[in-house]
C-alpha cells in the first residue's frame, strides 16, 4: 500500500464493472494487510470517508471502527444520515460523538476565521484521540485520501486527515482510494451501494457551517443558517439544479438590519446565497439561477426561518471573491 504514484497504465474507473473489479482487488489487499486486527476511521460523512467506510466494511466488517464526530457545524440531517446509512444500513461498528456543546463553547466569541479553523481542526484531533484511547487492539488508521490530495499535499483537506495525533497513537495507514480521482471514488461508492445523496454530493468544507456562520458563531444564527441552507438544497434538488451546479450554499454575516414582519419591526440577518460552477475550485463562475426560483427561495427562507429578514444573491465570481465567505 505504499505506492503513491498512479501508474501510467492504470485504467480510469468509469464503469460499474471496473469499479467492482477495483473493489474486489482492494478487499483482498485490505484483508491481507489487516488480518484480524482493528482499523479506525474518522467518518465525516463526506464522499471520500464514506466510500472508504463502505469498502472496509465489505472487507473486514466489524474490525472497522468508525468514529463520527458531530461538531455541531454539520448541515441539516447529515449526522443522522451517517448513522442511518452505516449503523442501520451496513451494521457498522460506529461510534457517534455529539460534540456540539464542546465545539460551540470553544468557539464562543471567536470571530477570526483562522482562529475558528484552528479550533475546529484542533478539537477534532483531541476528540478523535480520546475515542482512540478508549479502544483496544487498533493497529491501523484508515483515511479517505484520494489522488488529488496526494498531488496537492498541502491541499485544503489537510485538517480532515488525522495528521497531528500524538506519537504514541501512530497507526499504520490504510488508504484504499489514494490513487483514485474523485469521479472514480463516486463510481466505486455507487458500486458499494451508497446512496446518491452521499456519493454525488457537492463539496462541503471540513470546518462545515463554521466558515459560513461569519464572525463569532452564535447558536441562533447557526441554526438559522442550517435551516436556510436546507431550504436552498431542497429547492435545488426539486428544480434539478442540484445535478448541475457545482456548489451552492448560504452564508450569514453577523449583521442585522431592520425589516418588517406581521406589521411589526423585525430585525434580522441577511441570508446570502452562493451558487458557483468550477472545475478545480481555483476559479469559479456564477450560476444564473432563474428569477422565479430566486423569488421562491427568498419567500420560503424569510417566512420559514426564524431570524432572517432578507435574502441576497452573491454575483461575485472567483476571483475576486473566494467561494466560501469565511
Ligand atoms: P475557497 O473559499 O478557497 O474554496 O474559494 C475553494 C473550495 O474549497 C472548499 N474549502 C474547504 N474544503 N476544508 C475542505 O475540505 C476546508 O477547510 C475548506 N475551505 C474551503 C470550499 O468549499 C470550496 O469548494
Topology at a glance:
Layout: H1 16-34, E1 38-42, H2 47-60, E2 64-70, H3 78-89, E3 93-98, H4 100-107, H5 113-134, E4 138-142, H6 147-151, E5 172-174, H7 182-191, H8 196-199, H9 219-239, E6 247-251, E7 260-261, E8 264-265, E9 269-277, E10 285-286, H10 291-304, E11 308-313
Parallel strand pairs: 1-2, 1-4, 2-3, 4-5, 9-11
Antiparallel strand pairs: 6-9, 7-8, 9-10
Helix pairs in contact: 1-2, 1-7, 2-7, 9-10
In brief:
With 326 residues, the chain is an alpha/beta fold. It has 10 helices and 11 strands.
**Major sheet details:** 5 strands, parallel
What small molecules does this complex bind? xanthosine-5'-monophosphate
| Number of individual domains | 2
Low-confidence stretches: 155-160
Number of helices: 10
Q: Note the run of SSEs as H and E.
A: HEHEHEHHEHEHHHEEEEEHE
- In total, the number of strands is 11
From the alpha carbons, calculate the radius of gyration and give it in angstroms: 21 Å
Can you tell me the CATH superfamily of the largest domain?
HUPs
Arithmetic mean pLDDT? 95
Identify the overall geometry: globular
User: What's the helical proportion of residues?
Assistant: 25-40%
User: What is the CATH topology classification name of the largest domain?
Assistant: Rossmann fold
Structural class: alpha/beta
Just give the CATH class of the largest domain: Alpha Beta
Q: What fraction of residues sit in β-strands? A: 15-25%
